[in-house]
C-alpha cells in the first residue's frame, strides 16, 4: 500500500511521540482512503515504516506503543470522537466537508485530548498543529489549533488559546 498515504513535505518531529503522531495520522488516512483494516495497517507501519527508509524517505524512529494507542484508539472511539469534532467546527464546516488528511489529524488529536489526560493540552494541540503544518501551507494548521482548543475546553475545561483563561467553568 506504499504511496497511498499523504506525504509530508519536511517534518522533523522532536521526539518519538511526535513521530508516532505523524505516522498515526498517515495510517488513519491510509485506512480511510484505502479501506485497509486496523491490524493490517498497524502491522505494516510497525514492520516496514517506523524508523525505516522507503523510496528515499526515512521515517523517524517512533514510539510504537504510542502509535498503536492513537491509531487503535481513534478506530475504537470514532463514534464518540466525530461528534466532538463536529461540535467544535465552524457551523458552515460539517465534518464530511473536511479533507481526509485534516480529518485524520483532528481525530487523532481529539482522541488524545479525551483519553490521554497524562499529556498536557498544550503539548497535544501543539504537536497536531505541527503535523498539520507538515501537510498544509494555508489556514488548516489554524483550524486544527482552534478545533482542538475547543475540544480541550469542552473535555478538560482548559484550552491554550487566548480565550481559554475564562473557559474553565464556562458552558460552551
UniProtKB/TrEMBL annotation:
Single Gene Ontology BP annotation: transcription antitermination
HAMAP family: NusB (MF_00073)
Gene name, Swiss-Prot/TrEMBL: nusB
Top-level taxon in the UniProt lineage: Bacteria
Keyword annotations of the record: RNA-binding, Transcription, Transcription antitermination, Transcription regulation
Pfam family, one: NusB
Gene Ontology MF terms: RNA binding
Protein name: Transcription antitermination protein NusB
Gene Ontology cellular-component terms listed: cytosol
Primary role: Involved in transcription antitermination. Required for transcription of ribosomal RNA (rRNA) genes. Binds specifically to the boxA antiterminator sequence of the ribosomal RNA (rrn) operons.
Protein family: Belongs to the NusB family.
Domain NusB/RsmB/TIM44: 20-153
Xref: PANTHER family: ANTITERMINATION NUSB DOMAIN-CONTAINING PROTEIN, N UTILIZATION SUBSTANCE PROTEIN B-RELATED
